[in-house]
Amino acid sequence: MRPGDTIPLARCMVPGLADYRLDTLLGHYSIPLPADRHRAAADVRVTARVFTRLIEDADREGSVRDLTELVKVAGRTAKVGRPAQGELFTL
User: Fold this and answer.
1) Rounded alpha-carbon distances, angstroms, from residue 34 to 20, 37, 50, 51, 66
2) How many whole angstroms separate alpha carbon 27 and alpha carbon 12?
3) Residue range 26-66, pLDDT digits in tens
4) CA distance readout (Å), 3 to 6, 22, 82, 83
5) Which of 8, 19, 6 is nearest to 75 (CA)?
6) CA distance 40 to 19
């Protein structure tokens, strides 16, 4: 998942929030804002915590059963079985 993929997953798992900014999701999950919020490392840590909570919710509810469904929620299609650089292996 890419960082922006947290938003579609949050919209699916927590419908009805006023917005889906990181601070809103932190508040929803009662995750404290770090003192160094808006610094890269701090934002990555709290985004990972939010993502973990979203995945836990999805697992508990059974709404996302596998990685393929998770990728679909994010509005993407899985590239299972396709090499990322297939042209490197063509003779």
Assistant:
1) 18, 5, 13, 16, 31
2) 17
3) 999 999 999 998 888 999 999 999 999 998 998 888 877 88
4) 6, 11, 23, 23
5) 8
6) 21
Whether residue 24 contacts residue 17, with contact meaning beta carbons closer than 8 Å, is answered with yes
Q: Which amino acid is at 59?
A: D
Tokens 């985004």 locate to 47
- pLDDT value for 63: 77
72-81 — which CB contacts under 8 Å span 24+ positions?
A: 73/8, 73/9, 73/12, 74/1, 74/5, 74/8, 74/9, 75/8, 76/5
